[in-house]
């Protein structure tokens, strides 16, 4: 993680700055002061005695988990003089493309606002507030008129933007030897090849036990599953985020998944967290946003029509409405290529001092956004904890699936990785689909942008997300997408149109994720 020992002071200063002001920081200070009254704390060895007390009392472990969370989420400063925009996204043409895309989204939102004569935000009348509060736990029964609203954009709109993305410094040539990538993504980014992926995902190897394979009925549980569960319980007792992250690379037992994911994400659901959630809820009750109607519309169009997730409609509204008000989400824009959209107080258009972030969390929901939350409803039934886990998953992973960046887990790199894997591993299939006008990315993009939510059966999706958390990477989405094409290759070689190819790949709900990944990664190595 560190490039040299000289960077260590910079990293430590970065960590201290991030943690200072947090609840944990004040708790550690308070515990250190309390320990001064203990008889086993000696003045001559004060520093070491306090450190030992914090270790024995479990506070050292909490600090380690907090530091580990920061290392996983926030990029370390590559240089003391690195600018904020460089940390957000080092490539200027990516920054320009993202800024242009944001303007397009905001224009779509504003035009809807103007056409429908609907304010971006309004305070609810008292009667309306009471009514919303009374039906907070059954919002799914409400049937508001959403016919006037449309999603601000859909994944296919975003794909067209990515297809047109170009590096102005990269001169494209007609010589086949120079430009060998025949896919839709035409930007020169570094992505892993099969040997690099097999090394990176080595814990998924054929010789390593995996939940999703070795817990099947044909394999006696004593050979893997029982021992894996035993180790999982030990990891939970130790409350070590790093150990939990390593553990879930082989999959989570169903009974332990919720606790293990919360441990990896450093979610503890303390009283102050529950209070914060209640404050967000109060804000929802008090104010009505145009973004709320976009959330309602998205849930009705997606999760409400899904056989796996329609029962969680109420949870989805609660989480997403609170999420739209959460200004703490704005912190992730420090390492996100995107910037939060701004609106202006009525009559003050163009005056920066009257500009406000809209929605308050800086994230405009798009078609399918609610599917990031839906699978988590199987794991968490307490709204505030469900909310915290989703928020952490979003600021770690999901935001990368709808912003333009050069990050390895960014959607541009995932698309390029998918096309590169397919072109190098199954060139005949790739060329066939390209020739009939069925570019594979046009089919797989919607899977990746939703992290396969709504496409895989829930048990298989959770096994996939185990690995996303375990490797702190979204690259496995591109690998799985390529593996699906490899699995259906024989049928796809017979199709003659994009519609026919889409029909072959229309239903992924019967697929088993882990066998597909293992065969693609480890049975293809020469």
Automatic annotation (TrEMBL):
Gene3D superfamilies: Ypt/Rab-GAP domain of gyp1p, domain 3. Transmembrane segments: none annotated. Residues 251-472 form the Rab-GAP TBC domain. It holds the Pfam family RabGAP-TBC. It comes from the Eukaryota. PANTHER family: TBC1 DOMAIN FAMILY MEMBER 19 (PTHR16110). This is TBC1 domain family member 19 isoform X2. The gene is TBC1D19.
């Amino acid at each position: 993680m560190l490039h040299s020992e000289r960077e260590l002071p910079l990293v430590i200063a970065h960590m201290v700055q991030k943690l200072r002001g947090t609840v944990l920081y004040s708790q550690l200070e308070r515990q250190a002061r309390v320990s001064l009254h203990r008889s086993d704390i000696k003045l001559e060895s004060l520093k070491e005695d306090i450190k030992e007390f914090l270790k024995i009392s479990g506070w050292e472990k909490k600090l380690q988990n907090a530091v580990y969370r920061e290392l996983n989420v926030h990029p370390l400063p590559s240089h003391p003089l690195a600018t904020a925009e460089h940390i957000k996204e080092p490539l200027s043409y990516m920054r320009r493309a993202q800024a242009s895309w944001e303007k397009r989204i905001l224009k779509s939102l504003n035009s809807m606002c103007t056409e429908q004569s609907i304010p971006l935000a309004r305070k609810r009348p008292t009667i309306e507030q009471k009514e919303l509060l009374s039906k907070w736990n059954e919002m799914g029964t409400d049937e508001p008129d959403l016919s006037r609203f449309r999603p601000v954009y859909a994944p296919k709109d975003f794909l067209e933007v990515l297809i047109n993305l170009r590096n102005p410094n990269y001169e494209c040539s007609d010589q086949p030897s120079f430009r060998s990538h025949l896919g839709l993504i035409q930007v020169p980014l570094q992505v892993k090849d099969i040997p690099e992926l097999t090394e990176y995902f080595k814990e998924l190897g054929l010789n390593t036990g995996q939940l999703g394979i070795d817990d099947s009925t044909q394999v006696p549980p004593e050979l893997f599953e029982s021992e894996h569960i035993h180790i999982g319980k030990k990891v939970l007792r130790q409350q070590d985020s790093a150990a939990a992250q390593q553990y879930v690379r082989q999959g989570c037992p169903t009974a332990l998944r919720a606790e293990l994911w919360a441990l990896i994400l450093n979610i503890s659901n303390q009283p102050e967290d529950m209070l914060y959630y209640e404050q967000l809820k109060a804000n929802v009750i008090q104010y009505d946003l145009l973004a709320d109607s976009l959330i309602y519309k998205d849930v009705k169009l997606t999760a409400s029509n899904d056989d796996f997730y329609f029962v969680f409609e109420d949870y989805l509204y609660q989480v997403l409405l609170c999420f739209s008000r959460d200004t703490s989400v704005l912190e992730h824009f420090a390492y996100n290529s995107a910037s939060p959209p701004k609106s202006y107080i009525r009559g003050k258009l163009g005056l920066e001092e009257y500009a406000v972030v809209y929605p308050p969390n800086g994230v405009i929901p798009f078609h399918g956004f609610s599917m990031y939350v839906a699978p988590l409803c199987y794991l968490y039934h307490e709204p505030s904890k469900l909310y915290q886990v989703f928020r952490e998953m979003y600021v770690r992973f999901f935001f990368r699936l709808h912003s333009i960046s050069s990050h390895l887990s960014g959607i541009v790199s995932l698309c390029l990785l998918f096309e590169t894997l397919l072109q190098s591993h199954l060139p005949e299939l790739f060329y066939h689909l390209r020739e009939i006008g069925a570019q594979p990315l046009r089919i797989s993009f919607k899977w990746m942008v939703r992290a396969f939510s709504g496409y895989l059966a829930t048990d298989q999706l959770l096994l996939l997300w185990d690995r996303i958390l375990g490797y702190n990477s979204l690259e496995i989405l591109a690998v799985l997408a390529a593996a699906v094409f490899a699995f259906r290759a024989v049928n796809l070689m017979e199709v003659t149109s994009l519609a026919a190819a889409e029909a072959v790949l229309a239903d992924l709900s019967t697929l088993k994720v882990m066998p597909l990944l293992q065969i693609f990664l480890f049975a293809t190595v020469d």
